[in-house]
Protein 1
Amino acid sequence: MIDFEPHYRRVEQLIYAWARAIDEDRVEHIAELLLDDGRYTVKSRFNHDRGLPLAVIDAQSAAQLRDRILSMRKANVYQPQHYRHMLSGVHIASGDDNTFEVTHNFLIVRTMDLSGDMKIFATGQCHDLIVLTPEGAKFKERLFLFDSRVVETLMVIPL
Amino acid sequence: MCPLDHPLNTPPKPQTAPTSAPGASLARAWPKEGFTRAPYWVYLDSQTYANEQTHIFRGAHWHYVGLEVEVPNPGDYKTTYIGEQSVVLTRADDHSLNVVVNRCAHRGNMVCREPFGKAKKLYCVYHAWSFTLKGDLSHAAFSQGLRGEGGLPKDFALGDHGLQKCRVATLCGLVFATFSDKTPPLEEWLGEVAVGIKRVLNRPLKVLGYDTQRIHANWKTYHENPRDSYHANILHTFYGTFGLSRMSQESGMVLDQAGRHVYFYTKAGTEKKSADYEATTSQLRSHNDGLKLEDSSILGWKDEFGDGVSVQILSTYPGFVLHQIAHSLATRQICPKGVGQTDLVWTYFGFADDDEAMTQKRLVQTNLAGSAGMVSVEDAAVCEMMQHAMADAQVGESFIEMGGKDLDIQGSSKLSERAIRNFWHHYKEDMGL
């Protein structure tokens, strides 16, 4: 029975680093936290519970995630906005010496720059596969499962 | 400096004088130009919204409620909406498709609470009134009373108290419903636009999943959008830069004879260069040569339907879209939620006989569409910005003259707002405006 206690800090810090990069508008950094062959998926609980494969975002490599971020910066049109991640309940469910299956809760508030309106944009549970590499902890997989069947307006900044 | 001279103040444009009688409300008059204008009050006025529920959503039109494969077996049901009204699509024991109002005939409780389910009957929890999958009332608890007391009157007839039923029609696996007896048969109502449906939905389907996009704008701002071929290659940078759809490609627009519905198609790889194209595109933000994908495999497309069409966007009045964007296939259903909100339900599908590689291709290309779609996420943003900018909507109107001032075809160029003019023409007829 593996003792995960020594690994909590490292796992938590990786999860926070991803969220902090997005909230501080350093979105490009999250692709550095994903393995080159890692996968980043955002999907509704509505589909997941029914065994349906459809995701709203499915980047199947760090390159595809970088492409999405490039599209966000250069191509897409959307009202100026910011996210603020509130994360809790980090739990290492299973794993071995250097790979961990981790879950945590997320709640993202989106603030619109023009109106100042604040809204709960997304909430749910994230399922991560985190690996320890010589460069530190990285994500092999991130699966954001959001509770609502609905996306508010659009999702152009990754979660 | 006088405020009017300030560079941020533009001089006021002369407004069209109202022709209504003195004392009459300014807000309800349609501009005299007719369907080349849409007055902004139409997007915000609550009485108009209520009238739309009556004249359009309960009117003589077919409303998309789902795919046959969403309710494949007897007992399967799906709850959805026609306008604001919750309805249930069921597959009855005789395999027929039925659409009934999701409101108990007794006191108005919601009968089905789940988005999807399987049941032998439609059972209202409040007083145990029980309906068949076709909506007929089969049992009401204690209808005979108890120990000689209570119960329903002698003149109570089960047959008079079923769930309200819609007429149902299907085409190529799409299910439509209508509240009106006056609605013509579905294929007749679709006219020539049925061709666009048949070309894509040529064999049994398989659902891949759902995405509901909650847009804080009036439903009509969204419905106009896929009818608007003018914007596609301007607003959506992703299309143009990667050759998925460019104004210079071979393309066309098809409306039905009556002009209610429309589809646009584009053929990738058919770019023709011309001097005016080069001049315009150098101005457009769409042609951003700094934009290169690291992994362009997401855009891979093979001519799946054998006719060279890489993108087809098909809209039916008042709120349905069928899209083919490369290998991504989906329906979109507009569910209005009050004057200022639209829930847009995207149902993505493939074919039952798709191999795993094709299914994966379709799923990956979902990254291009929907709520987080790299190609067209802007549509929701412009709808909300329009809603915001029209403010109280007492003043002002849309100008819809691209491609002419008429309803009739002037070629099949996508540089035309003909399909939007046709929408307002039918809207005004339905609404008596």
Protein 2
Amino acid sequence: MSSKDPAADARADGSAAVKPLVLVIEDDPAICRFLRVSLASSGYQVFECEKGAEGVIHAATRQPDLVILDLGLPDIDGLEVLRKIREWSKTPVIVLSARGKEADKVAALDSGADDYLTKPFGVGELIARMRVALRHASGAAEKGEPIFEVRHLRVDLARRVVEVRNAPVHLSPIEYRLLTLLIQNAGKVLTHRQILKEVWGPGASQETHYLRVYMGHLRHKIEEDPARPQILLTEPGVGYRLASD
Amino acid sequence: MLRAVTMSTRGERPDPEALLAEANAEDARSRRGRLKIFFGAAPGVGKTYAMLEAARKESCTSADVLVGYIEPHARPETQALVLGLDVLARKRVEYKGKSLTEFDLEAALARRPGLIIVDELAHTNAPGATHEKRWQDVDQLLREGIDVYTTLNVQHLESVNDIVARITGVIVRETVPDAIFDAAAEVELVDLPPDELLERLREGKVYVPDQASLALEHFFQKGNLLALRELALRKMADRVNREVESFRRRHAVSATWPTSDRVLVCVSPSPLSSRLVRAAFRMAASLRASWIAAHVERPSGPPPPDADQRRLLENLRLAEKLGAKTVTLSGTDLVEEVLQYARRNNVTKIIVGKPLQPRWREFFSGSFVYRLTRECGDIDVYVISGEAEEPQHPAPPRMRLPGRPSRYAWAAAIVLTCSLLGLLVERHLEAVNIAMFYLLGVLVVSLRQGLGPSILASILSVGVFDVVFVPPRGTFAVADTQYLITFGVMLVTGVTISTLTARVKSQTEQARQREQRAAALYSLSRRLASLQSTEEILVALAQEASAAFDVDVAVWVRQEGGALALRGDLPSSFAPSDRDGGIARWVADHGERAGLGTATLMEAQSSFLPMSASGKVLAVIGVRPRQARRLFDPEEMHRLETFATQAAAAMERTSLAADASRVKLEVDAERMRNSLLSAVSHDLRTPLSAIAGAGSTLLERGEKLDDATRRELLETIFDQAESMNHLIGNLLDATRLEAGTVAIQWEWQSLEELIGALSNRLQKSLEKHVFRVDVPSEFPLVRGDGLLIQQVLQNLIENAARYSPAGTTIEVSVSLADGEALVQIADRGPGIVAGEEEKIFEKFQRGSSTRGPAGTGLGLFIARGIVELHGGRIWAQNRPDGGAAFSFTLPMREEPPHIAAEETE
């Protein structure tokens, strides 16, 4: 990822000079060590714990800025930990899980996790996700500029104007709703269910084919090469993500 | 291999000697060329044509095919098939001033083709050739490992030579030893019904050499053709049975071991016959010989009473139960029929009953036993007490005058016509010559109307001739006594003509019937031999039985637990009542037949027969005559049982085959586990050692290394870890696919999106290639599991990247083909080694052309597994202009859901 010091961004977003505190709930010592070393060197404070039940307590007492939660914990299900945290806290949570457990990831995201990473992952990827999560948590993205720009796409949310390479593009109402939803969550993954619920209403949460068709239309309108999308990214088996840089 | 052991204890242990012989034979066959014979009943059935067609097909699929010799007189259609094939020049031979062309064996051997076509296996070479006979040429070709296609007519087979001579009156001198026929790898019957053959002959489509045309004209008669066809069909049926036998022996099904002795017992309806059968069984058992129970039925005469039929069938069934093969022979001369059959089947001992009839009758009918012992030659004859002499129903043939009155009216009318003709020409001819008209009339009647009317015509002719033409006219009185001789000769000639014609007709009819039976049985055994499932076998049985016996059928199959289940879905089946179900159960439990025409539960509407193999009842067939309560004659009943037994044997064969394939699967799984272990240990250890090596270097002397080296080591660790991750992912996928635990999440997918997501993810693997994607816009959604389809795409694209050089293009294209989505991934690599198109999809197979970094050998296997789970197909082929193309399809059976259009803002 491009940014040399992501923690600087995080600090700029809210918590000024204080290093953001990250709670890592993970039982594998090797991964803990890797997270500790790499996060510390990127300007984060790290607190580790091995068990889910402890994690819930630490999340309450230590008030971390972000939680990294492994879904496969030895004592209680990671999903259970997430639900307990979400009962009283909006702290961003990034879940870690193994490949092939897409259903778990979707369940976690639908239960309020902010993002996910598939093991094994690189540190660059992790820090990019953390930055996005922290930014959204601080409310910076939601309250941001009425103009959104990424690559060759420019959307004026106030005037409802979409431009690709400075040429206006006409979107249907649904396409526009879809695009603005993704822009509001730029850089964050949204599950199929979340998007369907927001764009088509609660009754349509199973109709994934709507999403495929409209996403296809949208790509043809705003991507340079719809077969190799750069902005509207697919998270296989999980959902979609709008590229934030 | 545990299962393999249980398998062999289930059946009998195969005879090691037999297996060895089988193995040797197979070995010898594999070193020798393969001989395929196109076999026919007579010239003109289309053997050469079929052979050339097969050869053309063969030549398309690579085999080096050479036409060694085709009869130069072949028809234009046949000649046309030779075009485009490689043809060997014929050898010219001068013989007695004539120039003959012959097959050039030496040239063929020098040319060494993969497959050679040599017509007319029975041909005799011109003097001076290497071998006297063409089959010897062919044998040499086979010994040299060259495959041969050839043609042969049944009359050229040594073993049937005498029968053919007797049937047709033509002595065939060009014969081929049966061993050649028996050893052929494949025999294909080219069959044409006699009527069609005669039609072709009339149309001049059959070649008849001039010098032999007279003999051949005699040869091409319907009666002959029917008999020849029967012979050919029988030969084929024997062969098919032998193949089944050989299979059974391989799988230790057969309980009989062939020895040189063979016992034949003559069976009659007499209740005492059962003693004979048992005696024969004992003798056969003590000799460890196979044995045959034969019954001779006379074609003419009234049908025997039902009670006799029933008893006869009981006796034959008893014999079958005791392990005999049973046959029904048909002919007027019992002794000759029995001996002829015995010789044909290498019988060494014949058992007959001691005569019970009074001695005086032997004066008239001749003693059966006496004649048998006189004429038996080197066959031993055993006479056992307690059996009526005649091994069949004793009614002597009697002349009957059946027929409707109109046929007699016809006879009278023809005599009248002859008289009128005679009156017309009376002035120019003598009365004696006019008598010839009448003989002509008798001939016409006997041909058209049968025996009774023609005898009437003979008698009428004499009377009318006397009254009308012989002076004094108008009375029966005769002036010149010479005419009495004329009358006598006329009458005798007329009656003789009538009898002879009737006999010829009845023989033709018999031949036709026998031919039909043989054809029905052959048709069944041929169908059964090729069927692989019980389902298909039962359908074939139902179809063949209902066609051959004019019946409806019902079949119950014994299930795993022993219960019977009705198969209601067969063709021409009847709906059995509860009572029928009860009878079927009885039949299954007792292994005996019951119902209509038997001694048990005889009031039923249908007959029920057990279908048993190796002593176990596998199923029960019920047959209901379409003509209500028609009784089956013993011969019919016997054939029905043969049908049932054959089908049962086939059912057993399929279940054995299923067992065998299960064992093979287990062995394969075992082998797979071993190769999995070795692959895993190798493929996991290689990156591990690299990681450990690089890690320890960094740890121990990290500070002494320069930055570039350190970075290089770190990159090694990272790359190797990724490749391990990849391998483990593949292993898990493969295991899940194999275990069948992959559940498809059926959703509507956009192929464009799936490919798009990949092109980002695979940036690293594709950085050295040009990646091109072609998906038509508005391509319909496809139903499937997005993650799994993406996995297929990823594996295929990574495979393409791995095997094609940097800088080349990898193209992914999507199109619609025959209602399926077709995805193709094409590269410009070295392509697939010929013959490995299938193999590369197997587990741990890596293309032979591997040069770059080897894959795990699982990617394509996983791709295939996923595609097949989706009901699609996957295949690989080389592109005509270089490189490989991997394609897979996804079925699009369902219409994608409709999505309401909306207004653009």
